[in-house]
Every structure is written in C-alpha cells, then in structure tokens.
Write a structure and sequence with these properties.
With 61 residues, the chain is of the alpha+beta class. The chain has helices at residues 16-29, 46-58; strands at 2-8, 32-38. Keywords: S-adenosyl-L-methionine.
C-alpha cells in the first residue's frame, strides 16, 4: 500500500523528536510512505520573515 503525505509548513513547528515520531510512525505503519514537504528554506522574503516571527513567538526553532 502506497500512502502519500502532504505536509505544508507543519514539521517546522514541532520539536525535532515529535517530527521524528510522525515520520517514524508512517514508516512503521505503512509498507511505503511518501512525504511531500513544503517548508520555508529562504527566510529573506516576506513569507520567510513572517515564518521567523512565528517561530520566535512559538519558540520552536
């Protein structure tokens, strides 16, 4: 069974252990799991600056 996960700017808000658990759960639960990730990688545009402010507010970086 192939299961696709689409994750948009989600894992960045979790602490590393929780992110690892989410991915690990999918790997243990399904024979094939594919993750499509959309996470901010260039923090210099307006979207990136807002993400940095959000991360500072949530203290998740």
């Amino acid at each position: 069974m192939l299961l696709n996960f689409i994750i948009e700017c989600v894992l960045i808000y979790l602490d590393p252990d929780s992110s690892h658990e989410v991915v690990g759960w999918a790997c243990r639960t399904f024979s094939t799991a594919v993750f499509f990730l959309y996470e901010q990688i260039h923090p210099d545009d307006a979207f990136g600056q807002q993400m940095i402010r959000n991360l500072e507010e949530f203290k998740s970086h």
